[in-house]
Design brief:
By secondary structure, the chain is mainly beta. The protein has two domains: 38 residues, no CATH class; 67 residues, RNA polymerase II/Efflux pump adaptor protein, barrel-sandwich hybrid domain (OB fold (Dihydrolipoamide Acetyltransferase, E2P)). The protein contains two helices and twelve strands. The longest helix has 5 residues. The chain is elongated and about 75 Å long. 13% of the residues are buried.
Length: 125
C-alpha cells in the first residue's frame, strides 16, 4: 500500500532502497546519536590522521624553539606543575612544567637544541 501526501505517492518503507544500494556505490555507515546515515566518504576524510588522545606522560613542545636550560635529570621524582626546562620561542622564554606527578623516565632534548612543534621533550613513568 502506498502513502499519499498532497499528490505525492511514497512506497511503503520496506520497499525504499538507499541511493547507495540503487547505484551500487560503496557507502559507509555513519551514526550520529541515534540516527544512522549511509554516506560516501571523501578520499581526504578516509586518509586523515586518526585522532589519538594526548598522553599526559609524554611532554611535547607546543611551539618550535630552542632549549635554553634544563632544570631536572632523568630518574628524578617530580610533582605536577614543577618546571623542567626553559623553551625560548619568538624571543620569549617559556617555562615548560611537568603535567603529572611521577618519575622522569627520559629527556629527549639537550640544552641549545632547536626543536619543532609537537617534538617529544620528555617522558614520565
Amino acid at each position: 500500500m502506498a502513502i499519499n501526501s498532497k499528490n505525492k505517492t511514497f512506497p511503503p518503507k520496506k520497499e525504499i532502497k538507499s541511493a547507495c544500494e540503487t547505484m551500487g556505490l560503496d557507502c559507509k555507515t555513519l551514526q550520529i546519536e541515534e540516527t544512522v546515515y549511509n554516506t560516501l566518504l571523501t578520499k581526504k576524510f578516509q586518509n586523515r590522521k586518526v585522532y589519538k588522545p594526548v598522553d599526559p606522560k609524554m611532554i611535547l613542545s607546543y611551539i618550535p624553539g630552542t632549549i635554553l636550560e634544563i632544570f631536572v635529570k632523568e630518574g628524578k621524582k617530580l610533582e605536577a606543575g614543577e618546571p623542567i626546562l626553559i623553551l625560548e620561542a619568538m624571543k620569549m622564554r617559556n617555562i615548560v612544567t611537568i603535567p603529572v606527578s611521577g618519575k622522569l623516565k627520559k629527556i629527549y632534548v639537550k640544552e641549545g637544541e632547536t626543536i619543532p612543534k609537537n617534538f617529544l621533550i620528555a617522558e614520565v613513568e
